[in-house]
Design a protein that fits this description.
alpha+beta; 5-stranded antiparallel sheet; 16 helices; binds flavin-adenine dinucleotide
């Protein structure tokens, strides 16, 4: 069997103890945080270096064995769910922040570093790394690079791709490549770093990355804004940006989402409030005061019922508590929950929310929506109790994606395509574009062993029949 030969070769090169097959471990590496049906891998290999990753891929390439790179397993689209007979590459032993260059404003990191640990390490040096997924205490840098992760601060600071300058990456046949650069500027050759970021482990395995840092903002201020309706929320967001202020985040909770967290919102929700905005500003202390004042006034002029301001960390945490608890509050509120991550141009958010209301009514389900309104990236949730409703939910999901594309948006803002969104890829991308990407994959991964069954509809159908 190919897998036995591959594991034997890996064991010989990486040393005994690298290949793990105990039942609990295999079960814990069978799923991510999505609804994709778990599939146990044949083995988990805990790698320690680029050369070990290269050895695993050489053996897998030779014997035709699928390999799935895995970070923290917090993905929402099945990106790290193995296909049958796969080897999972795990990076807990490659979790060092290798170097922080204070003067160069860069850090060299291994893929197993937990994002929250990177934040703490660079902040201790007075520096700042922008991407801030809400899963930051459990996701890893390799997974963030695999998904081009974003987060609340993406509005001002951009997603992971904007922060990765270069990387060591291993292709499907075990070739080790140095991509990109270690400097903040540089345009030599094709930008393959950007291509690998967001490729969901299908082109290459990232074994080290050089990321950009910036000086930490001197001060941060948070506003919690309660508005009487979604129209006022839209006007308030437009007003804040119109003031020439670029908040680092603008988060929105629609009426249904606000209702679900009302009890645990951390602060009393005023009676007339039907939606909530959480706005965060950062910058130099002196100018932040003025920005805060102008932003607060713009919110009230747009019809806000109440504006609360937090200036220190404890108050800020209190204001964020409702937003952070939201995903769990939604899960508690229904027997079944699916969550989609879509993006529309900011000005089309009201149209998208109106479409969601129609879809919810037609399917007789609840569809609370929240997310990063500042960059048009919303998490649309589908909540229902009766399992027989699933066909209506599936129809509503397809209609949502059709609406998103029609409104000039895109199927995913941060979670990726993975397994779950692959059936919808043709709604947004032409067959020629999908075929071109498949050809690019075959150059990086000639035998198709790197994270198969992800992104491409035909490939997903082959490996995950039920999902498409
Ligand atoms: C509560 C919660 C909140 C979340 N909030 C956010 C959010 O704010 N923003 C956001 O973007 N996402 C969010 N997510 C989704 C998820 O956390 C992100 O997609 C994250 O980037 C995944 O990282 P991970 O380490 O868990 O990766 P995994 O789930 O393990 O893997 C994700 C993908 O990356 C690939 N990969 C992993 N390691 C490597 C590597 N070394 N080389 C190449 N490819 C690799 C995998 O093959 C897979 O395709 C959230 C998830 C949860 C559960």
């Amino acid at each position: 069997m190919g897998i036995d030969q591959a594991l034997l070769a890996i064991d010989r090169t990486c040393g005994s103890g690298s290949v793990l097959t105990d039942a609990d471990l295999l079960a814990s590496h069978a799923h991510d945080e999505s609804e994709v049906a778990p599939q146990q891998p044949a083995a988990v290999v805990r790698v320690r270096s680029t050369s070990e990753v290269s050895a695993v891929l050489r053996a897998a390439h030779e014997h035709g064995v699928p390999v799935v790179p895995r970070g923290g397993g917090t993905g929402r689209v099945g990106g790290a769910v193995p296909v049958q007979g796969a080897i999972v590459l795990a990076f807990e032993r490659m979790a060092d922040v290798v170097h922080i260059g204070r003067e160069d404003l860069t850090a060299m990191v291994e893929p197993g570093v937990v994002l929250g640990d990177l934040h703490r390490a660079v902040e201790a040096e007075g520096l700042f790394y922008g991407p801030d997924t809400n899963s930051l205490d459990s996701c890893r840098l390799g997974g963030n690079i695999g998904t081009n992760a974003g987060g609340p601060r993406t509005l001002k600071y951009g997603p992971t791709r904007d922060w990765v300058l270069g990387m060591t990456a291993v292709t499907g046949d075990g070739t080790v490549l140095e991509l990109g650069k270690r400097t903040s500027k540089g345009v030599t050759g094709y930008d393959l770093t950007s291509l690998v970021v967001g490729s969901e482990g299908t082109l290459a395995v990232v074994t080290r990355a050089t990321v950009k840092l910036v000086p930490a903002p001197e001060a941060v201020a948070t506003l919690l804004v309660f508005v009487p309706d979604l129209g006022s929320a839209g006007r308030a967001v437009g007003a804040a940006l119109g003031e020439g202020i670029l908040p680092r985040c603008v988060e929105l909770l629609d009426p249904l989402a606000l209702e679900l967290v009302r009890a645990g919102a951390g602060v009393p929700v005023p009676d007339g409030a039907r939606a909530m905005l959480l706005i965060e500003l950062d910058g130099v202390e002196r100018s932040l005061e003025t920005q805060l004042e102008r932003c607060g006034e713009a919110m009230l002029a747009a019809g806000a019922v109440e504006v609360l301001v937090a200036k220190d960390g404890t108050e800020r945490e209190r204001l964020w508590s409702a937003r952070r608890d939201l995903s769990h509050a939604l899960r508690r509120s229904a027997r079944h929950k699916l969550s989609e991550d879509v993006v529309v141009p900011r000005t089309r958010i009201p149209d998208l929310l109106a479409r969601c209301a129609t879809l919810a009514e037609r399917a007789a389900i609840r569809m609370p929506t929240y997310g990063h309104a500042g960059d048009g990236n919303l998490h649309v949730n589908f909540l229902w109790d009766d399992p027989a409703k699933r066909p209506q939910v599936d129809a509503a999901i397809r209609s949502l994606f059709e609406a998103v594309v029609e409104l000039g948006g895109t199927l995913t803002g941060e979670h990726g395509i993975g397994v779950l969104k692959a059936p919808y890829l043709p709604l947004e991308q032409a067959p020629e574009l999908i075929a071109l990407q498949e050809r690019i994959k075959s150059l990086f991964d000639p035998r198709g062993i790197l994270n198969p069954g992800k992104i491409f509809p035909a490939d997903v159908r082959r490996h995950f029949h039920g999902a498409c």
